[in-house]
Amino acid sequence: MGGRVTRVFRNFNVENRARREISKEKPTPAPRHRTARLDTMADSPEIKEEVLRKDDRFLALLKDVYVESRDPAVRVKDGGGEHLPSKQEEKRLTKLGHLEGLDVKKVPKGKISLVEALTLLNNHKLQPQIWTAEKIAAEYSLELKEVNSLLEFFIPFTVQEFRKETKKAITSHEPKKLT
């Protein structure tokens, strides 16, 4: 809608405005200085001779300049051309239980899979006395600081079902526990 309105104002009386602009007298440009013209200078034989002449003093100074460059030394790695992995990561089998079909089978030590993360968060939420941060760190080969951060900042969802007769009034009751 806005494009139509602006187009109408932009095209209004466009022919008359164009004719008026074309019929205006063009301003005469300012006169140029004689020395600003390059083509007249290039034609003079004195300038050509000066450009082509070698200056012995500058040539002697240029010969005194000596530049030496060296490439850095190339380091040869020991290894005899074998392509071995530089770092062997220790892997551990995942502890998934009945969800093993959903996730990877081996995980590097110090890391956990997504299903394991959800499992340990849910276990800690349901039984915090048994599943402490220290036990989780030992069980899943994690650092204690990372486990504490994980338990502090990530909380699994809870599913609550309400009875049909109490749709309007929500009372606080014990939520269903996921297993």
UniProtKB/TrEMBL annotation:
It holds the Pfam family UPF0240. GO terms for cellular component: mitochondrion. InterPro entries: NDUFAF4. GO terms for biological process: mitochondrial respiratory chain complex I assembly. Residues 18-42 are annotated as: Disordered. Binds calmodulin. Interacts with NDUFAF3. Belongs to the NDUFAF4 family. This is NADH dehydrogenase [ubiquinone] 1 alpha subcomplex assembly factor 4.
